[in-house]
């Protein structure tokens, strides 16, 4: 593969990623939540209450950025901060009942958008794409 072929592949990949990100952002509009906030809420729903630093690690963002995300979610009533029972000096972030409801609705909307997005591919192509993306993620 020549350098120009690789550049073409990278450009195509980024164009597809931008399109998927745009569709995902649109799917989140009914809840007025950012993609970063939706990711954080999803992590909390999967893992339960976490310290802000652990949430930042899951999201692969700086702790300060995680604090901003949590602040936004807390303002919307989707998460709450509470004392860590194992260390009273520490704080846990946990989804509220409303956060669980909104998180489930977002998960369903994202699944619908993903089905629409990848629906142009036949099952064999979808399986091959999933295999390739998993391999690239692992490297």
Could you describe the 3D structure shown?
Helix 2 crosses helix 5 (97-118). This protein is mostly helical and 139 residues long. A two-stranded antiparallel sheet has the order 1-2. It has helices spanning 3-28, 35-47, 52-59, 63-75, 97-118, 123-138, and strands at 79-84, 87-95.
Overall geometry comes to elongated
Strand order of the largest sheet: 1-2
The end-to-end distance, rounded to whole angstroms, is 19 Å
Poorly predicted runs are none
User: Which sheet architecture does the biggest sheet show?
Assistant: 2 strands, antiparallel
The structural class is: mainly alpha
Helices and strands in order, then pairings?
Blueprint: H1 3-28, H2 35-47, H3 52-59, H4 63-75, E1 79-84, E2 87-95, H5 97-118, H6 123-138
Helix pairs in contact: 1-5, 2-4, 2-5, 3-4
């Amino acid at each position: 593969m020549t350098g120009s072929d690789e550049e073409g592949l990278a450009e195509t990949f980024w164009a597809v990623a931008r399109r998927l990100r745009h569709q995902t952002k649109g799917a989140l509009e009914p809840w007025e939540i950012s993609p970063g906030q939706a990711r954080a809420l999803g992590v909390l729903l999967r893992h339960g209450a976490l310290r802000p630093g652990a949430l930042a690690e899951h999201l692969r963002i700086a702790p300060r950025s995680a604090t901003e995300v949590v602040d936004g979610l807390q303002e919307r009533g989707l998460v709450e901060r509470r004392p860590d029972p194992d260390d009273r000096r520490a704080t846990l972030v946990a989804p509220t009942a409303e956060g669980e409801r909104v998180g489930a609705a977002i998960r369903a909307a994202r699944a619908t958008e993903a089905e629409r997005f990848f629906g142009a591919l036949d099952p064999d192509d979808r399986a091959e794409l999933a295999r390739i993306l998993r391999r690239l993620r692992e490297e």
